[in-house]
Prior knowledge:
Elements: H1 6-14, E1 18-19, E2 22-23, H2 26-38, H3 48-59, H4 62-67, H5 78-90, H6 94-119, H7 122-134, H8 136-141, H9 148-165, H10 173-190, H11 196-213, H12 223-252, H13 267-279, H14 289-304, H15 311-341, H16 352-367, H17 372-387, H18 390-395, H19 402-412, E3 418-421, H20 427-433, E4 441-443, H21 450-457, E5 463-467, H22 472-483, E6 488-497, E7 500-507
Parallel strand pairs: 3-4, 3-5
Antiparallel strand pairs: 1-2, 5-7, 6-7
Helix pairs in contact: 2-6, 2-7, 3-5, 6-7, 6-9, 7-16, 7-17, 9-10, 9-11, 9-16, 10-12, 11-15, 14-16, 15-16, 19-20, 21-22
Amino acid sequence: MPLPSLTERAGEITGDLSLTGIPIELYPIVLFAGALRLLRLESESYWLDEAFSVTTVLSNTPSELLVSLPGNDPHPPFYYLLLSGWAAVFGTGELATRSLSALAGIATVVVLYGVGQRLFDREVGAIAASLLAVSPFHVWYSQEVRMYSLLGLLTVLSFYWFVRIQTETRSDDTGVRAEIGYVLATVLLGYTHVFGLFAILAQNVYVFSRYLLRIVPRSRLTVRRWIALEGITALLLAPWLVRLFRRTVAAHGGETSNVGWIPLPTAATVRETFAAYLGGPLFSESFPLAISLVVTGFLILSLSSDRWTETDRRHASLNATYIVVLWFAVPILVPIALSHVVTPIFVDRYSIGASLAFFLLIAKGIRTVSRPSLRYVVTGLLLVGLALPLPAYYQNDQKEQWREAAATVESNVDADDVVLVSKPFTERTFDYYFDRSGVPTVQIAPDAPPDEIRASVDGHDDVWIVLSYTSSSTDRRILQAVANRSEYRDPAAVNRYNGITVVRFEGTSNDG
């Protein structure tokens, strides 16, 4: 008797409950996900990385973004190209630019439901989509002008088409569409972030190891056909892969790397990454231990439950679980290993695609509970636990308040004043919001000697110092260098914002 395909298994379980072809349970999940991702989307100013994204697309043509930028930025160009076109239509305000990431985050919820349904069943898809909908980790990056939300969407799209091309004949129109969809989604994934390559690696590990493990259900994807698809994908990705290879060789040879700020990952890094998936960037340390233990239990249950089912269904379920485990593990373990061999590259947000498999495994574990009422209770408790950090997230400022800091200086500064910015790469963010072109803005390096700081304020009336991303000792040294000048009194005003301090020294020449 032939083994049932993944789609046949899903069809047996899902039933026909839908509204205009869309499963009815998906509506509230998507509405809730959309509300969380669009709420207060424009309330905070850009922080450093967001300002870099916006100013990059404003200061470069599309051809420069495609050709020149990849030589200076560690990330591939697709997100910047997409943001450039988006900003040309909707503008560069916080609401406009962040809405691109928000829409990508909402779409990710929908596609993850589809993957869960195809791999397992409708209930697994709904549970995984629900967990993703309220995840603070994903809400955070769905409200940021960076490529991480798009990285998550393209990862799950690539796996969606990856599953489909194994279960549909190539002679069918749907089979051809699945192959085209896979190549398109996977190429865009590779051009969005380097960690997209680890998702592709996970797919290849599955294809070339599945026969050895003898857990493969009926599949119409032959190895020869897969090699052809990957060949097309690699050919289309070749321009970026060549740049990436040259950059890796240069970094391994001792040249300065543009990812030199990334620390070497440890065992604690893995633990903190899982905590981030559950509680978000700011709440990983405070996430309730009980919720973490429950999640761990269902992950174990997800991996061990298949052996208790009948043979045909066990093979199909093991195959689906194997896909998700590789999807989850490879984009975490391989870059951590490379970090120890070549150069540190692992950051939890880079593995946002793996977090989607994490939620699928939790959902599958919950699905193994025999009593439906208990599954609902467990899912509800996990949703509440995941949502616990969200009120604080929305009520308190999370990003540096550059808009407010710049407005304070702008409303009080004169043309004879000078503004010192404490670190070179913060000047871009401050200048984005500071609309007084006649006022000089001077970069002060963290290790600048006192004489250099004093020389930068010579001939000016008042001195405004914007401190951010520096240590307290550096801040004291910069302030002391100005305070020691007899031309300036002690600070006339100190304004503190989230992550920023603005200090004003009033010149004695103002005495009249």
